[in-house]
Amino acid sequence: MTPDTEILLSFGNQRAIVSPWGASLRRYFLVEADGSEMDIVWGYSGGSHKKGGQGDVLIPFPGRIAAGRYTFDGEPFQLERNDKEGPNAIHGFVRTLPWQVSRSEASCVSFDVRLEAEQYGSKGYPFSLMLQVTYGLDETGLSCSFTVQNAGTRPAPVGVGFHPYFTVGTPLIDEAETRIPAAGFLEFNDQLTPTGTILPATGTEWDCRDFRRIGEKKFNHCYVQLDRDAEGMATASLRHAGSGRVIEVTMDRSFSAIVVYTGDAIADAPRRAFAIEPMTCASDAFNHPEWGLKRLPPGEQFSGRYTIRHRIEL
């Protein structure tokens, strides 16, 4: 297996390209009647062509941990500071790991990997986890589910996130609109780590609970206090009014935060697509466990699911 290893999933006119390298989602598109392809997830092919974390899986922590430091059960830890924006840890360990294919069908695939305390203890995470990520296509769209099991002997801090970028066919994301079902967002400092304050979105330019044109706004926000429907689902959307294209990203109760990003810092392709990142906890939740950090006892599992649906508004 190499970073170029890829698997094609197919259902009806839907196609998804995924890779056991990082359990990454590399493309999701529709095949039109004339044979042309309509991208839903802005993606890539071949490991060297990835931009801005496209399609990455973020475990055991999504987002940044300030200075890579945290305390858990009274014990201090220091993670590797691997963030190009500042001296922080970012996005966990599994993005560049080879995962095993444990299930493979025409429209569904599961990837598994194990993190061992003996290996990651020196990197600031002395906890053992068994991880599984499953991608599936059906008549409703693309689903992505995860399961994390504590395979160690002590409780473990766990966060899970995903990093897909979406496009509704516009050359730049400025022409699209977004709806983000959240009443608050984290205040960030100049190193993009949270100050500890949750800012209200209500009445500000960042309130997107109704569709709002992205325009020239630079999103790099971690939204919290999610609005949910009667089934506990939270749905973030991207829309282009001109074409009627709508993408809906629906998250179950395991997800408590959504990061959205306009990709301004992506070299050669700024603002080409809009990241909607489902996260089970907010950025820096290792230092703010009240922001959704999962404390996973030995032997127990934590699971969740999000789905991507594309439709045309008439």
Entry keywords:
6-stranded antiparallel sheet, 27 strands, single chain, 9-stranded antiparallel sheet, 1% helix, globular, mainly beta, 314 residues
Instruction: For the largest sheet, list the strands in their spatial order.
Output: 10-11-12-13-27-23-22-17-20
Structural class: mainly beta
Q: What's the Cα radius of gyration?
A: 19 Å
Portion in strands? over 45%
Kindly report the oligomeric state of this protein.
single chain
How many β-strand runs? 27
CA distance, first residue to last residue: 44 Å
Number of helices: 1
Helix proportion of residues, in percent?
under 10%
Describe this structure in words.
- The protein is mostly beta strands.
- The termini are far apart.
Topology:
Blueprint: E1 7-11, E2 14-19, E3 24-31, E4 37-41, E5 56-58, E6 64-65, E7 69-72, E8 75-78, E9 89-90, E10 100-104, E11 108-115, H1 117-120, E12 129-138, E13 141-150, E14 156-158, E15 161-163, E16 165-166, E17 177-179, E18 182-188, E19 194-200, E20 212-213, E21 220-226, E22 234-240, E23 245-251, E24 257-261, E25 274-279, E26 294-296, E27 301-312
